[in-house]
Amino acid sequence: PFYIALNAHSDAKARNQAWFDLFQKKGYLLHLIEYRKNEDPMEMDFKKSVFEELEVLSQSWADVRTKAQQGWQNKFKKGVKDFFAV
Description:
This protein is α+β, with helices and mostly antiparallel strands. The protein has helices at residues 12-25, 44-69, 72-85; strands at 2-7, 30-35. It has a two-stranded parallel sheet. The protein is elongated. The two termini are 33 Å apart.
């Protein structure tokens, strides 16, 4: 997972949009935020929000990896179990 913080008053997002699209197409988890000029990325509140978001992203990435590593038999068993659990 990637956490990307860009200055809202710059053209960085437009210049890098092709890269963002490419990485998302390849399956990478990207979280893009734009901060204002008066917000300092080195402040503790900003850093705390970064760490919290990365924790969420890493957990969802771990879930994706676990699901991808399951064999088709396990996926089928889970699908049947979920179907009849309703």
